[in-house]
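In the laboratory, one determines a bound structure by crystallizing the protein with its ligand and collecting diffraction data. In a computational setting the workflow is compressed into a single prediction: the sequence and the ligand go in, and a structural description comes out. We illustrate the idea with NAP.
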Amino acid sequence: MSADGGSGGGAAHGEPTPQIVSLPGGGNAPALGMGSWQLAEGRHPIEQEKEALQTGLSLGMTLIDTAEMYGSGASEEMVGTVIAGQREKVFLVSKVLPTNATRAEDIRSACAGSLKRLKTDFLDLYLLHWRGGVRQLDVVVDAFESLKEEGKIRRWGVSNFGVADMEELFGIDGGGGCATNQVDYSLTTRGIEADLIPWSVREGVPIMAYSPLGTGSGHILDNPVLAEVADRHGVTPAAVAIAWTMRNGETISIPESGTLEHIREDAAALGLKLSEEDLADLDRAFPA
Ligand SMILES: NC(=O)c1ccc[n+]([C@@H]2O[C@H](COP(=O)([O-])OP(=O)(O)OC[C@H]3O[C@@H](n4cnc5c(N)ncnc54)[C@H](OP(=O)(O)O)[C@@H]3O)[C@@H](O)[C@H]2O)c1
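The predicted complex, in structure-token form:
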């Protein structure tokens, strides 16, 4: 099966987390991927980080998320070496900075730079990293659509967009072609459940959850209730936290790790079956 092959996702509570999420306009994305924000920055030895990504790919985490911003291109270069010779197995996501997204020619040149660093001729998904100073979303949509027609990207989307931004996007010509919105979502960052998730479900735009381990918002992995749920399933708290973000079958999750043991733990989120009791316990420990 190719990285975006197979049949559509969708999961009810008590069902195993799905392997894939259906995308608007057809096709699928792997439900579990790997981030790369802080890779290639000396946090771990680079060979270890590459091995972690390779291991994740072999365990079914076949989406890799990067961005021109990460390490000023160092992350994309590293990902390029990892995917060399196995491009067809990977659903590759990169992002354009808002400072490069106010003029079509800048978006084209940013995309060319990403493709060069990643040593590939196409991205599966290209995202606007955040809204920033981008006033004219129509310029971005037109540029993304041209890149798509030329085969340089397969799909496009956005990141860090709230409901107002999404409504503005959907109000412009072609804006409904958005394939995903990548946003902060974890047990400790549940704010989007009040507005953005219901809006996205209604409009059929999958969420891609970044920082699913709650980075920057507290010590989620030390939580005793999370540990208890993990014990019930014989997995680690990280696997439960990640599976929780994927529980509705319409959310892609992209944890990051440069540590082999952690990647193996994170991969265990695939197929994990959280019960009604697990979800209720987690709701009490991490209120929405
Ligand atoms: N669009 C955006 O604006 C945006 C913003 C933030 C992030 N992102 C994307 O989302 C990805 C993930 O987000 P993130 O890096 O902020 O947060 P995260 O994935 O929630 O957490 C990453 C941290 O958790 C650790 N970790 C991973 N697995 C673990 C495990 N099993 N047990 C214990 N610790 C574990 C990692 O350390 P080790 O390396 O030692 O395992 C790393 O320090 C990023 O890499 C990036 O691709 C996008």
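The two ends are 36 Å apart (CA to CA). Keep in mind that any predicted model is a hypothesis to be tested, not a measurement.
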